[in-house]
Amino acid sequence: MRFRWTKDLPGLTRGGAAGRITGARLVKDAHGRQVVFRTQTLLAPVPAVHPGHTVGIDRGVTVAPALSDGTMREHAPWLTPGEKEHLRRLEKTSARRRRTRHRGEPTSHRPARTYDRIARLRARAKRRAVDWQHQTTTELVAAFSVVVVEDLKITNMVRSATGTVGNPGVNIAQEAGLNRSIAGEAWGRTAALLEYKTSDRGGHVVRVPARGTSQTCHRCGHRDPAARDGIRYACANPACGWVGHADTNAAINIKNAVGMPVSGRGDLGVTRSAKRQPPHAA
Questions:
Q1: Which residues constitute the domain of residue 222?
Q2: What 8-state DSSP symbol labels residue 107?
Q3: Is residue 145 a contact partner of residue 205, using CB atoms and an 8 Å limit?
Q4: Which listed residue, 51, 112, 120, 198, has the most CB atoms within 10 A of its CB?
Q5: pTM score of the predicted model
Q6: CA of 82: how far to CAs of 87, 121, 196, in Å?
Q7: Locate the Cas12f1-like TNB domain: which residues (predicted)?
Q8: Residue 235 has what pLDDT?
């Protein structure tokens, strides 16, 4: 494959000590083909210790990251209403064609064009999500030296809502919607970006057990699953009575959980109902 070398790679100079290209690979996605280079780089100096404070982050679907300092980082939908409607129509058309197509029937180029349009819209949404996550995590690691997050088993949380033959799922439509919301927020990618960016700036990420962070009052320690109602948390302890945003309360608990031991079984005791909240809870 031929390509035109129009400029030097970012951070590298052709012929420099760290500019030798050691490999390349061709990547194809919904937007076309890209060439990814592997280059020789010099060892980076050890970064100075970050002077910032510690922050706890609660990753949710109503608010992407809620911070223990009371602030939140929100984003617009990855697709505009018009793009969402276009995607819905394309997916509906694709499903209808699959249902009506008979085995052995010759295929046309029209379904392939529909699949390509669907792939481009989904890739556009992912690109916007990744861009927002990069900007947000860069802002956070510049302000805080230690970032505390829950050690969530995300793969288990987004497992099939239909369940199995022996253990069928309940509220399948609602569970599937929550699964899509969690996958759309890409919690794992957020944590991965925070880990390498804090390391580059002299900080670090701490993962803590997730059990009880959304059900426990950060002020008095009273735990009651009924205290959380959507995005509102109202402590049931008469001697406390703290009321506020549930995600802020969880973020403070996450920050305060640094140093808590993991259970002897090696898991974190995460229950699906303790963390998962409807995306449009009132």
A1: 56-100+109-275
A2: P
A3: no
A4: 198
A5: 0.74
A6: 9, 11, 36
A7: 187-254
A8: 96
